[in-house]
Amino acid sequence: LQTKRNKPASKLTLSDANGALKIVERTKLVGKLNGFSFATQTKVVVTLPSDRTYSLVLDMDTGDITLKGNANVKNLRLSTDTGDIDTENAVITCEGGMEIEVDTGDVELGTFTTKSLNIESDTGDINLKNGTASEKIELSTDTGDMEIEGLLTAKEIVIETDTGDCETDGGCLD
Question: Pairing state of beta strands 20-27 and 10-17?
């Protein structure tokens, strides 16, 4: 990846260990202004073959994670320290568990079917459309609102917020 002045701004390293693809980004600062540092933003697109099922782990320090289309996975873990996680335009089928974690940022989750779902956010909103978990759905935010727009189905549903509202805008818990 290059900056406007053709200097390297970011380096991606790809490795394959035990069938897991690991993508590591090393970002160089591209400028400073009044004590604030600026880095480039990298976009990584991962396309999974439809004839195989993988476990998918996306772990970011800073940046948004967006899933689109149909995703058939064994397990799913999405995590970012600062950024949003958006799967609103995806249909996720997960054999095992789904874990989504955000320190500062919002979570938008579209249609899903899974064994279990755990979403944790320190500061940010959690919005869900339609989903089914054969076992448990856990939603937790320290500071932020939760909105359920569709039908959530599970044996056990736990919703917890320290500071924020929980709304079911036409949504239903079953």
Answer: antiparallel
